[in-house]
Amino acid sequence: MKKQHLAVLAALIIVLIALVFFTLQSEKNDGGNNTNTTTETSNKTETNKNDDTDEQAGDEEEVVSVDYEKSYAQKCSTCHGGDLTGGVGPELTQIGAKMSKEEIEQIILDGIGIMPGGQLKGEEASAVAEWLADMK
């Protein structure tokens, strides 16, 4: 009976250590100094939308801009690594050679295995999927 209590205690300690580790990794990836020197236009996806149903509005355009690298850093890098090399989740450095943008987006939306779905939604999920699909 005493051995069972020790096993449960050991498991709880391991879970606590893992939780602290992932929290620190998340804070490290979310804040701090970003040494990435890519230009603003190279790490954003822009979508132009025209509303043809409103003739009176003229040619107004709505530009939706998604910073996919920031989205990845905030929602994905804890498990997949800040450099896409993996960790708890699989590496993504060459995911585009294995899956299409649509397959990647479906996994982002629905999840797979231990990965929860819905961390990214809509344009954000689509932009990250497009970016990852280019990883070949």
Main sheet?
Answer: 2 strands, antiparallel
Element order: H for helix, E for strand: HEEHHHEEH
**Given this structure, which CATH class of one domain is correct?**
Mainly Alpha
Q: Which topology of one domain does CATH recognise?
A: Cytochrome Bc1 Complex, Chain D, domain 2
Structural class: alpha+beta
Proper CATH architecture of one domain: Orthogonal Bundle
- Topology, number of strands: 4
Mean pLDDT: 78
Distance between the termini: 53 Å
The CATH superfamily of one domain appears as Cytochrome c-like domain
Low-pLDDT runs of 5+ residues are: 30-58
Structure, explained:
Residues 52-62 have a biased composition (Acidic residues). Residues 29-62 are annotated as: Disordered. It comes from Robertmurraya siralis. With 136 residues, the chain is an alpha+beta fold. It has five helices and four strands; from the N terminus they run H-E-E-H-H-H-E-E-H. It has a domain at 45-50 and 60-133: Cytochrome Bc1 Complex, Chain D, domain 2 (Orthogonal Bundle). Strand 3 (111-112) and strand 4 form a beta hairpin. Helix 2 (68-75) packs across helix 5 (122-133) and helix 4 crosses helix 5. The longest helix is centred in the N-terminal third of the chain and has 29 residues, at 2-30. It is elongated and about 55 Å long.
